[in-house]
Design brief:
The complex is a heterodimer of chains A (245) and B (529). Chain A has 245 residues and is mainly alpha-helical. Chain A contains 11 helices and no strands. In chain A, helix 1 (8-51) packs across helix 2, helix 3 (80-101) packs antiparallel against helix 7 (143-164) and helix 9 packs across helix 10 (219-228). In chain B, the strands form 2 sheets. A 5-stranded parallel sheet of chain B has the order 2-3-4-1-5, sandwiched between helices. The chains are: A mainly alpha (245), B alpha/beta (529). Chains A and B meet through helix 1, helix 2, helix 10 and helix 11 of A and helix 4, helix 5 and helix 13 of B.
């Protein structure tokens, strides 16, 4: 029996797919350590998701985590704008999960499509989930550092949005066709690392007081020590040495 | 004005190299830490051990593509937080921490994909197969969490599993080796954990794994298998204040953290130098005292010297008693000895002297073990620096030289800045105040109170007191004499005094003292459980 003939559409897409595979090879060989760093942070987000498995809002966190996976795949394949878009969605879903953790009714209405959710409200510096007013109710000692993270998030979110909105200031750096760009990949990884760290801090600010203990010393504590062990407040919660004056 | 960082841990990994003020001394240490041989890095709190470890790790990380040496940093600072730290649990805890950090370092450098990465999740949720190192980590993690005392010890693997997994990792990733930096490696108050750590350090040794351990001066219990002279190179982090470049280096170190201080330091040079010399080579103390003196001027520096070196540094030392109650007598005696005896002696000696001033003391090698232990704790706090042992003093007697923190001495003067200038300009390491084997200051702790020891909450100490005299580090002759005197346990020996030992034939003052010192030394390490 003769096999099915490949259509030109299929052939063209597979050719792009093949180009993507070559770009993946270049991306990994050029950026292995930074990609490794990002994938480790990505796994750290998953450690938190696993610990929150019995909470309803973990569904949104799991979606966020998957979106980060698609973002990493997209950027490694040379799909740069899509990678920025997915990264922004990762941020939005992560922040939504934490917002919903304190607003279960809203979460249910949103899941049922009976109420919208404002992503910008969740990221808002004054009233969002990294704002002083929100964080102090869950992890008072994290309020100061949370405001620094909120600034980082605002910057990276805006940066991703510029790609989504096609702002020339950033899109002029993008290749016109499917091809590898060292500088764009570099930029994306830096933004993604900042985003992943901010999400880990967000999870710490929301759940850390409840889940982190000096005697536990497990994987959850390792995620925080790795990214935020330089913050005295975090070290104090982990039982690591702190020096104050 | 920038914020001053007091601890290396306050810096992120990618910031560390920006703060390095490199001296030849530092470079030698950093290169050793990057090298192939095992290293023990010893120094008091705040002298910069963590910074040197992290600098070496950062340089290896920077050079990873060309050098292929993977740096792995782990701190054992939380060892005291393990509940019910039996030897088996502590060993499993150490190994699980080491494995966890090796796994993270390998994944973070891009050599391995984390088991639960999102790019595995979008393929349908299947997790990647855990690496061998991750499997070992899980095994030891469960072991220390659950405790293995009641479990079949055959199910708990030995450290050789880690060694083999490291070799596999290096071969599969094209790495030459892993340099493992262990910070706060051996707890100064828990000799049992020191022995276990050093034994593990030796057991992990392989061409693919080089261990570098930062320890405090008191960590000297190496166990039976680890030989410090053969199994590692010991490097001491003591910055000599008699080095001609000392003040300039300390200035650079501060300015690297906050360049805006340049003008103030230039204007108040003598005052800054006073803080630098008072810190006696300890950057953390310099930064803390400088922070208290800003904006810099003479009055603030004078006030800081008085407040910090008369009160704060001692309060920190005394606070050790809260955590290690069994050691409180030694901690408080050490404080009294330095404050009431040594510092006044040095001050009196230096006050009207124009040449060869001193900040050094010498302790006879046959001084009581409790005295030496108390001095070790003062070294841990940074109030003393242990110098060379085997130093000959008056009448060719042999002992150990210590440097007393200069700040503690200059704080005695009404004008600490002027007095500091006077002392530091003529400081001579050859001049030291000598304290013999039986100095009257030793009396309060020379005889440890047996009743107090027997009333202890520590099971380990009670067991030790009931242990046979066979455990004492004495000669066979001395052991026989104790048996003649019907002393069977260490507690029996401690309950006696030298006059009783001398009742045995051929036991004079020297042997009697050695016998009692051996009994005291045998219980000292169990004081805090």
């Amino acid at each position: 029996m003769r096999g099915r003939a490949m259509s030109t559409i299929e052939a063209r897409l597979l050719a792009l797919n093949s180009d993507g595979a070559n770009i993946i090879r270049l991306s990994v060989s050029d950026h292995a350590p930074r990609l490794g760093q990002l994938l480790q942070l990505d796994a750290d987000v998953q450690v938190w998701a696993s610990r929150l498995a019995d909470r309803p809002e973990v569904v949104q966190l799991a979606s966020a985590h998957r979106e980060l996976g698609f973002a990493i795949y997209a950027v490694s394949s040379g799909l740069y704008v899509h990678a920025y878009a997915s990264l922004r969605l990762f941020l939005e879903l992560s922040f939504a999960s934490v917002y919903f953790s304190a607003n279960e009714l809203h979460r249910r209405k949103w899941v049922a499509d009976r109420q919208d959710f404002s992503w910008s409200a969740a990221l808002d510096e004054d009233n969002g989930v990294l704002s002083r007013s929100f964080v102090r109710e869950f992890n008072d000692s994290a309020t100061d550092d949370a405001s620094n993270q909120a600034k980082v998030v605002a910057q990276v979110y805006r940066h991703c949005s510029q790609f989504i909105h096609g702002k020339l200031a950033v899109t002029r750096e993008l290749p016109d066709q499917l091809e590898y760009s060292h500088s764009v990949l570099n930029d994306w990884i830096e933004v993604a690392i900042d985003s992943a760290k901010a999400v880990i801090y967000l999870l710490y600010a929301r759940y850390g007081e409840q889940l982190i203990s000096v005697t536990n010393q497990g994987n959850l504590e390792a995620t925080i020590e790795h990214s935020f062990g330089h913050l005295p407040e975090v070290r104090s919660r982990l039982g690591l040495p702190v020096e104050s004056e | 004005m920038a914020e001053l960082f007091f601890r290396a841990e306050d810096l992120q990994d990618d910031e560390v190299l920006n703060y390095l003020v490199e001296t030849a001394f530092d470079r030698e240490i950093i290169d050793s830490l990057k090298g192939r041989s095992a290293v023990i890095l010893r120094g008091s709190r705040g002298v910069g051990k963590s910074f040197l470890l992290r600098t070496a790790a950062a340089e290896l990380r920077r050079d990873l593509p060309s050098e292929r040496i993977l740096p792995v940093y782990v701190t054992f600072a939380r060892a005291t937080l393990i509940t019910n730290p039996t030897p088996q649990r502590f060993l499993a805890w150490m190994i699980s921490k080491i494995c966890n950090r090796i796994v993270r370092a390998a994944q973070g450098a891009g050599y391995d994909l984390p088991t639960h990465s999102s790019i595995a999740a979008i393929q349908g949720g299947s997790a990647a197969e855990p690496s061998r190192m991750e499997q070992i980590e899980t095994l030891f993690e469960e072991s220390w969490r659950l405790g293995t005392d009641s479990a079949d010890s055959a199910t708990v693997p030995g450290p050789e599993m880690v060694r083999d997994a490291v070799e596999d990792l290096c071969e599969s990733s094209g790495l030459r080796r892993i340099n493992l930096f262990v910070d706060e490696a051996a707890h100064v108050f828990i000799p049992q954990q020191q022995r276990q750590f050093f034994t593990l350090m030796r057991d992990l040794r392989s061409p693919y794994l080089s261990v570098k351990a930062a320890v405090y001066p008191g960590a000297t219990s190496f166990g039976d298998s680890f030989q410090p002279t053969h199994d590692a190179t010991t490097l001491i982090v003591d910055r000599s204040i008699t080095d001609h470049a000392y003040a300039a280096t300390m200035r650079q170190l501060v300015l690297r953290q906050d360049p805006s201080l340049q003008e103030g330091i230039k204007r108040y040079g003598e005052e800054f130098d006073t803080l630098a010399y008072a810190a006696s080579g300890n950057p953390r103390i310099l930064l803390k005292t400088l922070a208290r003196s800003l904006p810099l001027n003479r009055r603030r520096v004078q006030d800081t010297i008085r407040e910090y070196y008369r009160e704060a540094i001692w309060a920190e030392h005394s606070s050790l008693s809260d955590r290690y109650a069994g050691h409180s007598a030694l901690i408080e005696w050490g404080r009294r000895f330095i404050e009431s005896q040594v510092l006044p002696d040095l001050y009196k000696r230096n006050l009207h002297r124009t040449s060869e001033t001193s900040s050094y003391l010498w302790i006879h090698r046959h001084s009581p073990p409790a005295v030496r232990e108390a001095l070790r704790l003062l070294c841990y706090s940074g109030i003393l620096q242990e110098g060379d042992s085997g130093i000959r003093a008056t009448r060719s007697e042999v002992g150990t030289r210590y440097m007393v923190n200069l700040g503690c001495q200059i704080a005695l003067d009404a004008d600490p800045v002027a007095y500091a200038t006077h002392v530091r300009q003529a400081l001579s390491i050859k001049r030291m105040i000598e304290y013999g084997a039986n100095h009257h200051s030793y009396r309060p702790i020379d005889a440890l109170n047996l009743n107090e020891l027997e009333g202890t909450d520590s099971d380990a100490l009670r067991t030790r007191l009931r242990a046979s005299i066979d455990h004492l580090d004495i000669s066979q002759f001395q052991r026989e004499k104790l048996a003649e005197l019907r002393m069977a346990t260490i507690g029996d020996v401690l309950a006696s005094d030298e006059a009783i030992f001398k009742r045995a034939h051929y036991v004079g003052a020297v042997r009697a003292r050695q016998m009692r010192n051996a009994a005291v030394a045998a219980v000292l390490e169990y004081l805090s459980g």
